[in-house]
Structure formats: structure tokens, C-alpha cells
Amino acid sequence: MGINIKDIVKHELIGLKIKVVDSKNKTNIGIKGKIIDETKYTIIVESKGEKKRLFKNNITIDVYADRNIARINGKLLSGRPKERVKSKW
User: Fold this and answer.
1) Which of 35, 48, 65, 77 could form a disulfide with 3 if both were Cys (CB 3.0 to 4.6 A apart)?
2) How far is CA 77 from CA 20, 50, 57, in A?
3) How do residues 39-83 score in pLDDT, each as one tens digit?
4) Phi, psi dihedrals of residue 19, rounded to the nearest 5°
5) What confidence score (pLDDT) does residue 8 get?
């Protein structure tokens, strides 16, 4: 069963591939990689063999899931991952 792209914000993000398309920190724009960890305020992306910690509130990302792409404002991802995944919007 695949990921419903409409519900991607409620989905587990670890393991998904992303690309940063906008950021308050312009040096983060263009970072591509796989999410390897997530905290309340950050995601950690493995990119070109390096780990990069990105603040959720500062970024907009494209998430690649099951041949689909979803553009997400990182503010929607704020909060503890286990609470976001359980939420029933």
C-alpha cells in the first residue's frame, strides 16, 4: 500500500526523499536527500554522505513518495512526530 499524497503531513517522514525548494537560510535551498531522523522542530537529511539538520519552520520541501511529489510548508510538520502521525485532522 502506498502513501496517500494528500495525507503526507500525517505520514511518517523518515525514509522519504526530499528537496528543499525554499528556506529562510538560502544556503539550504537545493539540498536533496533522504530524511533519516525527525524531532519536534527539525528534520535530519542525509545528503551526499553528510547529515544536515534543517529547521522545519524555515523550509518548504518537495517530498517524493510513490512517484508523486508534494510541496509542503515545513510549518505544517512542526510538533512531535508521534503526535503529528496520530492526529485526525
Assistant:
1) 65
2) 14, 22, 8
3) 999 999 999 999 999 999 999 999 998 788 889 999 988 887 777
4) -140, 130
5) 74
Secondary structure, 3-state, the chain: CCCCHHHHHHCCCCCCEEEEEEECCHHHCCCEEEEEEECCCEEEEEECCEEEEEEHHHEEEEEEECCEEEEEEHHHHCCCHHHHHHCCC
Beta strand pairing call for 50-55 and 59-65: unpaired
pTM: 0.85
Burial class (CB in 10 A: 0-12, 13-18, 19+), 87: exposed
Domain 11-67 has CATH 3.10.180.10: no
- Residues 4-32 have pLDDT tens digits of 656 777 778 899 999 999 999 999 999 99
